[in-house]
Write the structure tokens for this entry.
Amino acid sequence: MSTATAVDERVNKASPLTRIMRRPEIGALMGALVVYIFFSVADQTGTFFSLDGTARWTDVASTYGIIAVAVALLMIGGEFDLSSGVMIGSSGLFAGLLMTEYSIGVWPSIFLTFLFAAAIGFTNGWLVVTTGLPSFIVTLAMFFSLRGINLGVTKLLTDTVRVAGIAELPDGSPRPGYESAKAVFASDFSAYSFRIAVVWWLALTVVATLVLTRTRFGNWIFAVGGDSNAARNVGVPVRRTKIMLFMYVSMSSCLVGIISLMRLKSMQAGQGVTQEFIFIIAAVVGGCLLTGGYGSAIGGTIGAAIIGMAFIGIAYAQWNTDWTWLFLGLILFVAVLTNSLIRRRFQGARK
Amino acid sequence: MTETSSHEPAALALENVGKRFGSVIALSDVSMSVPKNRVTCVLGDNGAGKSTLIKILSGVHTPSDGQMYVNGEPTTFSSPREALDMGIATVFQDLATVPLMAVWRNFYLGNEPTRGFWPFKGLRAKYAKESCKAELANMGIDIRDTEQPVGTLSGGERQAVSIARAVHFGANVLILDEPTSALGVKQSGVVLKHIRNAADAGISVVFITHNPHHAYLVGDNFYLLNRGQMMAEYTKDNVSREELVKAMAGGAELEALAHELGAKG
């Protein structure tokens, strides 16, 4: 605080603990610790705790986390995107078809795919702000439309439901540009095979956190989600802010689509479908309010980490992986319950 | 009508302005002028068209007919941003602050202090927090902690923050939409004091209210709006508080009501 203004006597001195507990992602962080300890103990193979195990669960968490962070920002901005899962498949297929069917180079294809994703995100956002319909409905329609287009176009062009042969040209020689693209999007590093997607995930978390808390655009995200009328009245470009958020979400799905395409060297038409709720779960577990205006980017990352640990931890505990979904359901409920209890206990804020 | 005979153009003026929403005529043929450094009150009961008028003045709606003038220049706003850029700031009744956001974030919302170059343009958070507290203190508003969400402030404090924000960002014209309607007696007094201070500091204030007592305390000019039309215009010299209250309440009707109630009591 400035030297001029003394601490007001009406302010209850907030202890450091209370200050920490006021953070939106604190519930998720404690949840992550509990889940981590739980699976370290339940582990039957002795690898969950090791660097190998860590590489495994961070790998799962990274592809969820890249999108969950974007979805968290969108939810703070007061909107939903249900097309974020199917966009993984759409972008992978789009890039794959450009390479295999239209013989466009790897890097130009990736560039065009990001443009395509930006256009889809723009369409989502533009439709939401123009029609005034709930984003739940608009993006649900986009979800089903893309799901149909993914299948239809892929079958039309390849007569199968997948695009394959990304790594090689039809004559069997390596596709130019594939190796460099793979290095950027899908390489491993270190002896424990940590994937580069983890770096993308953590870097995007840092960037999103800085944008949210340390830029005026971040201030606008909170404002349009908290009260879009008030935001518009004081001169915040509400429409532009929301459209940008939708574009960010679909472009992060696109990044994951490209990562999957480079890893698998092929893409199924159904890829990514049903994952949209995982991103929303991660954001909500991370402390985002469903009604908007509150949350953090790092919360989305912690939520994704919990989900990654659950997927891998259950396998290492040698339980039937069918139980994963039950586990996710319970995590979601407990996390949201704890978040709201913590908020009431420590915020002391009228809501 | 005793027009202040300065050749200075009015800060804000409307000429025969009307607004229709489909078949609903919200305002028709409304003319008014907001002289500089004065408090201009617009009085009207519920449904009189006050909200529509305020939205036209602040750029939320564009008028269907008529012309608006800013400093004598014909002007049309297509968004609140444009009005803000011309120094016309509006404090809406309920919609001026985001409850979940901290006081300092609200104070600078839409006018965030930044430094550096894109894409490394950062919010000057520390500076914003400190200057927000200092600015509010300058205007006699004592906020406990600028980190607390605005939703935890009282109604009067929220209005005060909104007014202080508008004044701080160099508003020439300050439009206030029923700033005292939800407040207690003492809090209303505080807000009225801020209104007077703002006018004395050289700001033209448009004070929209349904309370003639509040209006008379701070106002210089008074407009009476009813059923979408401008019914009367007064200045402080040619109207008493009683007359204003009477005109506002529909005059004779109120007297009849008082008699009736008096007879029973």
Observations:
- Chain B touches chain A at residues 58, 60, 80-81, 84, 90, 92, 95-101, 105, 108-112, 114, 121-123, 125, 129-130, 133-134, 137, 142, 144-145, 148-149, 151-152, 165 (CB under 8 Å).
